[in-house]
Amino acid sequence: MQDQAGKVILVFGGAGGIGAEASARLASGGARVVIADLHAAQARAKAVGIVAEGGQAIGVACDIANPELCECAAQAAVDRFGRLDGVVNCAGISKPHDSISLPPADWARMVDVQLNGAFYVAQACAKRMWAAGGAIVFITSINAEAAFPRRAAYCSAKAGVAMLTKVLAIEWAEKRIRVNAVGPAYVATEMTERNIAAGNINEAQIKARIPLGRLAQPGDVADAVSFLLSEQASFITGHSLYVDGGWLAYGYF
Ligand SMILES: NC(=O)c1ccc[n+]([C@@H]2O[C@H](COP(=O)([O-])OP(=O)(O)OC[C@H]3O[C@@H](n4cnc5c(N)ncnc54)[C@H](O)[C@@H]3O)[C@@H](O)[C@H]2O)c1
C-alpha cells in the first residue's frame, strides 16, 4: 500500500464493497478519510471501524446525483480535516434490464448516478483542490470498453466517465489536479452477489471468461486506486487502468 500520510481523501460510495476496502487501505496508509455514501449509517459505521483500528475517519451522507450534496460532502472534508488532497468515486448502482422495455426513469437514474454524479463529485472536489492540486480517481468498469447486453445505461454511463476522465485531466492539469479511472471486471462485492442471486450473471461462466481465472477482490481494485492517488503516479493523468484479470485483452473463442 502506498504512503498516503497526512492526506485528506474523500471516498464516495465508501460504505460499499470497493469503497470500504479503499477507505480502510487508504487510512492504513496514513490518510485521513471521509466516507460519503447514500447509506449514512453504514458510512459512519465504516468510519468508526477505521478509528477503532487507530486511523482517522468520519462518515457523511451523500447522494452523488445531487450536486448540492456533493458540495456538502467536499466541504465536510475541509471543515473536519482542513484540506482535500484526493477523491475516489466508488458510488454506483447496477440494474440490468432489457433495453426494449427499460423504463426511462431507470435509464435516467443510472445516468444520474454513474455519469452525472461523477461530474458533480469531481467539480465539488476540484474547487477545494484548486490552489494546492490533488488527485481524482473514478471507478469505471470494463463496460467502459466492452458492451454487455441488458446494460445499455450502465455501459453508456461508464464509457462517458472514461471520456470525462480524459477531459478533466487535460483541463485541470495546469492546476496539478490529476484525474484517472480504475475499471474492474467482476469484483466479489455485494453488487456482484446481488447480480448472481438475480440470475443476471453466472459465477462459473465469469471465472471461465477471465484469463486469470477468478473474480477480482476489492483489495485488487483498492491497490490500483491507492497507486493512482500516490506520488508514484505523479505523471499519470487521463488514464483508465483496467483491473480485469485479462478480460479486455481476451479475444479468442
Ligand atoms: N462489483 C463489481 O463487479 C464491479 C465491477 C465493475 C465496476 N464496478 C463499479 O464499482 C463501483 C463500486 O461497486 P461495488 O461493487 O463496491 O458496489 P456496492 O453495491 O458494494 O457499493 C456501492 C456503494 O455505492 C453507494 N451508492 C449507491 N448509489 C449512491 C449514490 N447515489 N450516492 C452515494 N452513494 C451511492 C451504495 O450505498 C454502496 O455503499 C460502482 O461504480 C460499480 O459500478 C463494480
Question: Can you characterise this structure?
Answer:
The chain is an alpha/beta fold. The chain is built from eight helices and seven strands. It has a seven-stranded parallel sheet with strand order 3-2-1-4-5-6-7, sandwiched between helices. β2 (32-37), α2 and β3 form a beta-alpha-beta unit. α1 crosses α8 (218-229), α3 runs parallel beside α4 (104-127) and α4 packs parallel to α5 (152-172). The longest helix has 24 residues, at 104-127. Bound molecules: nicotinamide-adenine-dinucleotide.
Task: Write a concise keyword list for the protein shown above.
253 residues, Rossmann fold, seven-stranded parallel β-sheet
Mean pLDDT: 97
The largest sheet is: 7 strands, parallel
Per CATH, what is the topology?
Rossmann fold
- State the separation between the terminal residues, measured CA to CA: 36 Å
Residue fraction in strands? 15-25%
| Proportion of residues in helical segments | 40-55%
> Quick one: CATH class?
Alpha Beta
Number of domains: 1
Order of helices and strands: EHEHEHEHEHEHHHE
Alpha-beta content class: alpha/beta
Distinct ligand kinds: nicotinamide-adenine-dinucleotide
Give the low-confidence spans: none
Q: In the CATH classification, which architecture applies?
A: 3-Layer(aba) Sandwich
Number of strands: 7
- How much is the radius of gyration in Å? 17 Å
Shape: globular
Trace the largest sheet across and list its strands: 3-2-1-4-5-6-7
Please report the number of helical segments. 8
The CATH superfamily appears as NAD(P)-binding Rossmann-like Domain
